[in-house]
């Protein structure tokens, strides 16, 4: 079988790369990884990368400053490559570039991806889109800059080699990339574990306000608009708090409610072993996975706390194994 990327690049000079909305480490790492690889190995081709507001913590990646973040009317391309996006809707405002491109290629690892492009490489067993991309590149031609991008994508979608999607192939790819001389420790700390001062303060507040309820099975915390405004915090400062809560000895599930807008609470839910939190989130119009889900609830702090507590209590009754 030929290489789907190499054949797509043939005779196509004007190329656009796209990732999904609210790009995570994998979307940013895989698109920038391919961007750098093409710039270095195909200098005759013109390559643009569009992403929706990529987080500054990824600015150590080469090419970050060249990412275009605004849709520009009237541009069309010979080839559009979509990375880490499970459907066309997730391409957001940049969708017209995909729709008007003469040829399209989709590289992804989401199980739900229908194969929406002219040519598709969707590998559900892969830990990350970055791992799928790695398999398409010539290892000899991967520079240190490109290696940093791909490594970043892999660590973000595996929770630093921890999630069940991590495989031998993932570790082999990571090992190969390490030999390019990348500062892997700094990449992991800087882009995955480091929190800014406000984020750490909000973590402290959420933990201080937390309670253990429902016979100790659940840890819940409610952060109000006032708590956030007092510290100049926004929704992006609440990332990762729920994961710290989940990793508490003896609990099955963690619930974090924070008031993103006046009277509107974001609920993040995590479970450890047996509780299906996606079912809870779905019944309030949200979604997610069995062990990680979220939804939005309207009302004051007391009301939304009561609503989510009841829902979790019901779910525990249903899901808790008899011991
Ligand atoms: Mn991904």
From TrEMBL:
What InterPro entries does this protein's entry cite? DDH_dom (IPR001667), DHH_sf (IPR038763), DHHA1_dom (IPR003156), Oligoribo/pAp-PDE_c-di-AMP_PDE (IPR051319)
Every copy of the DDH domain together lies at: 14-154
Q: Which GO terms describe its molecular function?
A: nucleic acid binding
Which Pfam families does the UniProt entry name for this protein? DHH (PF01368), DHHA1 (PF02272)
Sequence ranges assigned to domain DHHA1 in this UniProt record: 230-306
Which chain positions lie within coiled-coil regions? Answer: none
Q: What is this protein called?
A: Phosphoesterase RecJ domain-containing protein
């Amino acid at each position: 079988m030929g290489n789907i990327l190499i054949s797509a690049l043939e005779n196509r000079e004007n190329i656009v790369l796209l990732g999904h909305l609210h790009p995570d480490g994998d979307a940013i790492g895989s698109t920038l990884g391919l961007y750098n690889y093409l710039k270095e190995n195909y200098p005759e081709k013109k390559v643009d990368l569009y992403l929706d507001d990529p987080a500054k913590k990824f600015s150590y990646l080469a090419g970050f400053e060249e990412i275009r973040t605004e849709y520009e009317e009237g541009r069309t391309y010979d080839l559009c490559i979509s990375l880490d996006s499970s459907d066309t809707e997730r391409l957001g405002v940049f969708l017209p570039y995909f729709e008007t491109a003469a040829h399209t290629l989709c590289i992804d690892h989401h199980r739900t991806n229908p194969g929406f492009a002219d040519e598709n490489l969707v590998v559900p067993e892969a830990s990350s889109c970055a791992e799928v991309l790695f398999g398409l590149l010539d290892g000899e031609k991967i520079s240190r800059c490109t290696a940093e991008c791909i490594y970043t994508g892999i660590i973000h979608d595996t929770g630093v080699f921890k999630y069940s999607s991590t495989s031998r192939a993932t570790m082999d790819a990571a090992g190969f990339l390490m030999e390019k001389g990348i500062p892997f420790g700094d990449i992991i700390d800087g882009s995955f574990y480091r929190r800014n001062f406000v984020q750490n303060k909000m973590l402290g507040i959420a933990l201080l306000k937390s309670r253990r309820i429902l016979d100790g099975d659940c840890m819940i915390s409610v952060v109000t608009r006032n708590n956030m405004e007092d510290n100049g915090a926004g929704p992006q400062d609440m990332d990762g708090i729920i994961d710290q809560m989940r990793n508490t000895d003896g609990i099955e599930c963690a619930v974090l409610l924070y008031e993103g807008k006046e009277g509107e609470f974001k609920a993040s839910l995590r479970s450890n072993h047996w509780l299906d939190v996606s079912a809870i989130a779905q019944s309030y119009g949200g979604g997610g996975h069995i062990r990680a889900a979220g939804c939005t609830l309207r009302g004051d702090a007391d009301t939304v706390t009561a609503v989510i507590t009841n829902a979790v209590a019901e779910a525990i009754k249903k899901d808790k194994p008899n011991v």
